[in-house]
Here is the input.
Amino acid sequence: LKISTKSGTRNKTAPLLHGLFFEDINNSGDGGLYGELIRNRAFQGSDPSDGTPQGAVPWGPTLKAWKSIGSAVLSLDILNPLSDSLRTVLKVDIPANATGEVGFLNEGFWGMDVKPQAYGASFYVKPNGALYKRNVTGVNLSIRSALTDDIWATTRVDISHNISVTKYTKLEAVLTPEAAAPNSNNTFAITFDAAEAQGQTFYFDLISLFPPTFKGRKNGLRKDLAEHLMDIRPKFLRFPGGNNLEGISIDTRWQWKKNIGPLTDRPGRPGNWGYFNSDGLGYLEFLEWCEDMEMEPLLTVYAGYSIDLSGNQPAHTVPDDELQFYIDEAIEQLEYAMGGPDTKWGSLRAQHGHPEPFSIKFVEIGNEDWFSDSYYWRYPRFLAALKAAYPNITYIASQATESSPANRNVTIPPGGMWDLHHYQTPQFFKDNFNLFDNWQEVAGYPDVQIFVGEYSVLGRDRVGGIDWANGEGRFKYPTTIAAIGEAIFALAMERNPRVVTLSSYAPLLQNFNRAQWTPNFIAFTADPSQTVLSTSYYMQKMFSHHKGTETLPVSNTHGGLNPVWWHASIDTGSATRIGDADVDSTRFVQGNIYVKLVNAAKQPAPITLNFDTAVTKGNGTILHHEDEFGFNYRNNATAITTKMFDIEQSAIGNRGATVKYEIPGLSVVVLELKQR
Ligand code: AHR
Here is the structure.
């Protein structure tokens, strides 16, 4: 390969190319990245089986994850709502003959991690009005084992004076275990001493327990998972969906006005992926997540189309004469994020604790509207109105070419973007390595750019491609060959920075206990030590860390591509990117050359790199495994990870102008060389 470093031949790389796409799927939000440890904390919506297939939930309040302690009788109550949004509460009846400890516990999202750290507990409680005997002095809170009698932390909250008998009182406490529990099979309990509470009734709601969160945010993100995401150095976050934006009906769409402000005002919603969403991770929390990871927010706005993936009901399209309501909703949504304190929605954001306006540079109109037959009239109306209100935003179309005879082409205006989704086989990504070369000219969109908003290798190569109907060959977890296929496609993007400016793997997170979609980037349980970073994760991290600021042209002296694929770039900027502090300071210096190589074959491939400049010894990062279907799993979580190696001086010849390297079979490699 001949690599030119001449300045006239370079192009700027896309500064935001590698980002994240998040939606609540596979309990990635509730029971995942959202730090809340209490499952079904407000008895909002049913979750009847842990193996819920997508879309198959009969929604309704539930006692899921709650159990009684002692002789306490638990039931759901709708006569004593906590708020207009949280209408069902827990009724706890303590029998007159109760003895010992009585109360209830929550099992968490398949357990709770217990460490010697401060857990913030809060809940709302109300006694039974005039019937209350005012003789209960306190409630006991504890974090305890589900398997043994061990109690990891306990505290008592005084209710002798500070509790109203007719209204809900919010009580808060901190529990600090002295040591880590041996496993995550733990619960959170609220109990009374029966001697005090015999014959009494109490109502409870919004029972919450948070460990320390990422960057210490109140109502924030689970720290360890957020840190794994941050390690990639993502440049943007697309949220809140995906299908989970759209709702299974228009009324159950993701509604930003219902997921901001106090948690008591968030009714939650039936998510698109078969379980109820608490919406605790709401609009402002998403924006703060972007702020905390220094990512550009990429907001998908509801565009008048809802879809039930289970096919239980037909898709819903907002009628033409009602569309303006949803357009206005989107404009107000932008004002909530970007408006000053003098604006209606901006001042509400300030009231919610974030006076500084956010900046949103990217907005996607809808999601995967090729499923609909109406985008061709909805998109132009949204676009015109949003542009008039916020002309500096780049608007992304979720469909452009005709998707059905009824859903015609839409015209993306110059300066716009198009979101493409590719869940594919490795072969597809190889075959489409040239997809973006001259794409703008071929597609007739000279000034439109591509956002590859969702991509991953979904399954192995097979005749006919992905088997969506039966799932034959579909991967449960990202494999070696998946990372290789994705790396080839990422190279296709990196070498076309004029065309592809944003990209994100999907889906991002999966709780091991429940998946509506596989494979996923990171799989986890309640126990952080069980988290599995996938082959795809390591591949994305490698690419994001070694993007370079300018592309270097590579000409091919080795014959065609396949099985070896490549791209080269150079870093002309200084090390100002977030997270750089934790990296060896000799890396990311001005003039570093990155040569990315993918060998999709099982055999090693010797290669010579010819430079028009003298390079000196450097190092490399490799992701390799001999089994193309190998994957990381719980008891083998680091089977396939990146390893660093030195490029020895002996590999460098011709006074620094050539580097010889043998690319191991089935591997993704970044060689990092310095100019002399
Ligand atoms: O990532 C899972 C789903 O795939 C997304 O919700 C949707 O946009 C796509 O079909």
User: Anything to note?
Assistant: Confidence is low (pLDDT under 50) at residues 575-588.
